[in-house]
Amino acid sequence: MDDTHDTADTDGLLSIGAFARRVGLTPSALRFYDDCAVLRPAHVDTATGYRYYAEAQQQRAALLRRLREAELPLVDATAVLDGPYEEAREVLRAQLGRTRESAAAARAALEEILRALPGGTRRAEVLVGGAELAGAVRQVGSAVAAGAAREEFPVLGRVLVEIDGEEFRLVATDRYRLAVRALRPLSIGGEPCELLLDIGELTETAAWARRLPEVTVEVEGRQARVRGGGECRELAGSDEVFPAYRMVLDDLGAARHRVIADRAGLRRAVADRLDTGHRAITLTTAGDDLLISPEEPGEPGATALRAICTGPPLRIAFDPGVLLPALDASVGPDVLLEIASEARPVVVRSADQGSFTTLVMPVRGTTATT
């Protein structure tokens, strides 16, 4: 017998048809979720088998619909609906990662097909200040890999150039640091493009561009051209695949700790520890002070800096050789550290340059107090 009629019973419940329209699901889907014990009706008429739903079930049904639209397997959707909060977050993060990987693979395949078609080469052009371009290259260059890491993973010795919508971005990472600088060009045109460029060639071009008021950056296929002052510099791109840095940014989580300190003072303290051979240092918040001290037990000599510290008390460890370049790449008198947890990358920002972000991985050892 069909149970899709719209009659609500005297107790104020909704028929399966009426409820389906309210929550954006089909009656057949609701029957399926009933059979799977994911969304049971509030009442089933024993004589007719008609299913009825309560108003209070709409929120659960709508969330279930959204989870299924996101292609979440039913077992995972159940964990989000009924599991602990942290389990739900982990399930959603995992699905988000899988979705991004799938979308990235599809995008790469489609772009490759487009490039192979006649007239399929993508092209974009931006106009930026020469000094601004040079400054951006200097900043992201601090996160480019060198030495053995670059020999093992040559792609980490390159800078990702992205032209997308209204932004022109430069991105670099050595696996322990990630630097992203977004520029607002004076003008922008063409299709979204990305290209991997060698840091050495890009640095030379940036040094030339620094003296020019404006330069045009043109990306076409696997080639880049930088024009200005009647000259043109050509740079060859790479076919390598750059790490999926957006997944890292999206997975940072909300900052539980924020520390604003004097950048020059923090830099000196970190550099001193590096010069004396310390492999790790700790940053500890103590009221309005930030303490920088050796990680090794029993080592004397903490440096105290006045700071604005928000969030629970914090104690976290860094490799000074990794943290120092991030501080060097920043600008302005202050530096802001945003910390979600001791296990996640720490965001290093400059109050004077919100368009530049560096991520630095902490090291195992001392942890943040929660």
Number of strands: 20
Number of helices: 11
The span between the termini is: 57 Å
Low-confidence stretches: 1-8, 366-370
Helical amount: 25-40%
The geometry reads as: globular
**Overall average pLDDT:** 86
Strand content: 25-35%
How would you characterize the largest beta sheet?
17 strands, antiparallel
Which assembly state applies to the chains in this document?
single chain
Would you tell me the structural class of the helices and strands? alpha+beta
The whole-angstrom Rg is: 27 Å
Structure, described:
With 370 residues, this protein is an alpha+beta fold. Helices cover 35% and strands 31% of the residues. It is built from eleven helices and 20 strands. It has helices at residues 16-23, 27-35, 58-69, 74-82, 85-116, 130-141, 147-152, 199-209, 245-250, 263-275, 320-329; strands at residues 14-15, 43-44, 51-53, 123-128, 158-164, 167-173, 177-183, 187-190, 193-198, 215-220, 223-228, 231-238, 257-262, 281-286, 289-294, 303-310, 315-318, 334-339, 346-350, 353-360. The strands form two sheets. The chain has a 17-stranded antiparallel beta sheet, with helices on one face. Strands 1-3-2 form a three-stranded antiparallel beta sheet, with helices on one face. A hairpin with a 2-residue loop joins strand 10 and strand 11. The longest helix has 32 residues, at 85-116. Residues 1-8 and 366-370 have low confidence and may be disordered.
